[in-house]
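Ligand: adenosine-5'-diphosphate. Inputs:
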Amino acid sequence: MSTNARKTAVQTIARHGLDAVQRPTERPRPLPELFSTNVFSDAVQRQRLPRPIYESLRATIDAGKELDPSIADTVANAMKDWAIERGATHFTHWFQPMTGLTAEKHDSFLHPTSEGRIVLEFSGKELIKGEPDASSFPSGGIRATFEARGYTAWDPTVPAFLRETPRGSTLVIPTAFCSWTGEALDKKTPLLRSLEALDRRAVRLLRLIGEKDVERVMATCGTEQEYFLVDRSLYFQRPDLMSCGRTLFGARPAKGQEQEDHYFGVINQRALNFMQELEMELWKLGIPIKTRHNEVAPSQYELAPHFEQTTVATDHNMLTMEILRAVAERHDFACLQHEKPFAGINGSGKHLNWSMADDQGNNLLDPGTTPHDNLKFMLFLTAIIRAVDLHQDLLRVSVATAGNDHRLGANEAPPAIMSIYVGEELQGIIDALVEGNAPAARPGGGMKLGVTTLPELPRDTTDRNRTSPFAFTGNKFEFRAVGSSQSVSYPNLVLNTIVAESLDFVADEIERRGGTGERAEVIPQVVREVLSKHRRVLFSGDNYSAEWTQEAEERGLHNLRDTPAALRHFASDTNVALFEKYGIFSERETRSRGQVLTEKYVQLIHAECLSGLQLGRTTILPAALTYQHRLADSIAAVQRVSAQIDVGPQVELLQRVAAEIGRLEQALDALARAGEKGEGLHGAGLEQAEFYRDEVVPAMVAVRASADALEGLVDDDLWPLPTYRELLWVN
Ligand code: ADP
Ligand code: MG
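Predicted complex:
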């Protein structure tokens, strides 16, 4: 047996095999019974609340009416009873600060009485408002000039739920997080604001085209989540994975993903066991998980829920990421959600499927079968095309993170250029409309859009352009540039805002031309004009190709290659004005968000720099020196036996090892200097971020090059870090 910790771990994993998997002790309950059991759902609300209170609450949830605070005590009490019956001892306000993670602080229901006993209480006040200490959360300077206090406010649009753990349960109240001045300190508040903005503008346009019954439009969202599973005993031997979420070192394995034998392959038994327990947990929380499959890379997987109203879908994705990690632990796995855990191996993304639905249940991006539906569809499509073209920079910023910089533009994920793929048929229709040679109106048809009835648009998945960052897939758009570890809040918020603005523009144009009565003439005119101006953002070719980069430049599209480049655009005058006009962010809020994003980029890369330095100096370098020593000893020993033996090649090997060690040392020193200088730029905002991009990242790449070269030279028994082969294939 080897004394190398890596190898011991591998032997253990091989031995325990499926024993590591916990077998269920009882048969799981049938899914219809199980689904949503831990949710204070509509059904539970109806059953447990007095009728008028139930109706008042539903008016807030379903129709967006303002919450009546007088119902809070009754609702809180019903929630508490329901939770306590299920073993809850605590409640928590659950929120999404700008860290990108979720936050919670638990309070028990316990209240002491004067007789030295206790009663369990939960008041309306406690339901509606919490006061966590806000001073430790990022605010981008907002809090500094005010009080450090922030408060959490109940978001009734997402139902409360129970988090079960083996020793009890906690009642979780989804909340928004603001400062005392009402400024948003979280990712939910602006998302709620953007949904309201979109709702109003979409309803406005629908009214203009004669849909008088629609009261409300909601954005819908479905998130496809990719992740890796790595055995925990190997994970704990990779300090870089533990502290940065990705491997900073690791030579390419002999077998990579080239054979493409993992994608949609048979799911291995251990991973499947994990998924089944995971899904059970998610279903109990009312998260409608639909699909599971292997992804492109070894040990990479994907899951996707059925789509939901956006705030619910966003919260559910945050919860899904948490529960992925928690269930992975129980199965001796670590769940990696970083965008690029392994160099040279497929990274992880999160496709954000986005559409809009009215309160009659109609998907506004469904082309439909009647001329009216076609018209509606073309109008919304036109507005979206305009929105993406005008606000490419904002969409790009919404997916800009240090982790995602490894993916976007790296020929496995969409490039950093934002363009739209609409499919051949639709592209044909758009081109015909713009060029004015579309077929004339059908005789007797009320609408002259050029095309009276759109052809049936294919909805199958086979001919979709997988390289496009923003693709129309039959009845929704799929934003594919989102990072796997990201909250979908910002990408959703940006989509909602820019589309709201564009819907306004289209409605203004129609009104300005008196199109409300005689819309038959005016609407196609507006559609044609807008499309001809913004058609340049449509692209159906290979987004990974060098020709596209060139062509996009000629078309005048942005190519914001990395996070600092994208962030340069975030708080531009146009964007500040846009967010202000639609009530998403005040100017101060926009600027503070930009600051938080910048700081986060710097912090992440600085942490990688420190982790790389430490691993390089205290783990990799010593192993290489030991090997060098052994080689030298061995050569000397051989020569002692006989000077006749040719040790020339061995000396050459020693020289190569020594030279690589020298390069590693130099690269580590250079990295240390870059990191120190970067840190010294604290307060320089984007300039600091640019320094990290231009100086620190390349210095890390140089360190890695030498370290990875040494991995290919040094005795495997001496190599201290689990290799890519072990991380990706041993499970
Ligand atoms: P694929 O991308 O594999 O073709 P689907 O078409 O089934 O898969 O959808 C992928 C995701 O898109 C799922 O989460 C699904 O619920 C979601 N989705 C489908 N329709 C809509 C819609 N109208 N709005 C938002 N998301 C949607
Ligand atoms: Mg998809």
